[in-house]
Amino acid sequence: MYKIIKKVDLTPIITLMEVDAPRMAHAAQPGQFLIVRAHDKGERIPLTICDFDREKGSVTIVTQVVGASSRQICHLNEGDSFTDFAGPLGQPSEFIHKSSKELSEMKFLFIAGGLGTAPVYPQVKFLHSMGAKVDVIIGAKSKDLLIFQDEMRSICDNLYICTDDGSYGKKGLVTEMLKELMDSGKKYDQAVAIGPMIMMKFVTLTAKPYNIPLIVSLNTLMVDGTGMCGACRVSVGGKTKFACVDGPEFDAYQVDFDEAMRRQMMYKNIEVEADHKCKIGLH
Ligand code: NAD
Ligand code: FES
User: Fold this and answer.
1) I want to staple 20 with a disulfide (CB 3.0 to 4.6 A). Which of 3, 239, 263, 268 is the partner?
2) pLDDT-based confidence at 283, cuts 50/70/90?
3) What architecture does CATH give domain 2-89?
4) How many A from CA of 200 to the centre of ligand 1?
């Protein structure tokens, strides 16, 4: 059992939990994810690792209520435990294989959308510790849904915030901020976009004319997380890949986003029905 040692509600629908998981904290690298089950009959939910503390032996996850299973996770409290907390899974970000000298000469741009800001955080933290230059764009629907802005500000060189409704920072989508930065002559060696699939698709289309190398982290459906079930199948460069073992990070320009979004929608009706039952207390 994996005990929740800290729980903080970051927004009305987004919850941060620090979980006692020493072996995972020891092995985790930026870019990886884990799979949790709230209880023994619960669904297996993939979540990105938001932070890890090797000394303390803890791993931090951030969950947004989007359906029945995420609602069950967010209802757990400090002192409660997860039945399963499996990981770290997937490949770490490619840049962890570069030397600190190489990284200290590189300039990165991260584009974080909504909840995708959580997995961006450990990557920026790692690059900052290696001396890399890092700019970050964070986009959220509104001010009350922005997360990690103070933490991010303390570890990046420039932070650009935008909200869809203009309630904080610049009014507009992350793609508009990206275009503005590129048109102002900013140059980056590597960009990374993490957020909803539709955002990553449009970031890719926006970035392409500027020839910036771009990585995306795919949040596909996942079941086993070990390459056996095929649930996380995606087409990358015309080849079938499994996001759980080959990814979750891929070259954005090679990803078939339309197919990935169609597959993401496959179980939407079942999920809506399950969430309704959860809200009215049937499970
Ligand atoms: P959201 O819908 O509030 O979008 C966040 C930001 O993305 C917006 O403010 C906007 O700037 C940008 N965006 C959204 N649609 C866009 C479009 N069509 N064109 C350009 N920019 C666009 O995001 P949310 O509600 O926080 O997202 C939750 C989703 O993020 C869930 O589906 C979750 O699975 C996903 N997620 C993905 C990852 C990952 O690893 N890729 C990690 C965590 C969460
Ligand atoms: Fe089953 Fe990836 S989640 S193969």
Assistant:
1) 3
2) very low
3) Beta Barrel (2.40)
4) 8
- Residue found by looking up tokens 């970031």 in the block: 203
Closest CA to 111 of 168, 178, 22: 178
Q: How far is CA 137 from CA 149, 270, 278, in A?
A: 10, 34, 35
pTM, full prediction: 0.92
Residue 171, amino acid: K
How do residues 40-80 score in pLDDT, each as one tens digit?
877 888 998 999 999 999 999 999 888 777 888 888 999 99
Going from the C-alpha of 200 to that of each of 22, 88, 186, 227, 270, the distances in angstroms are 32, 23, 20, 23, 25
Q: Is the pLDDT of residue 240 over 70?
A: yes
Domain boundaries for CATH 2.40.30.10 within the chain: 2-89
Distance 224 CA to ligand 2 centre (A): 5
Is the C-beta atom of 139 inside 6 A of ligand 1?
A: yes
Question: What is the fold of 94-215?
Answer: Rossmann fold (3.40.50)
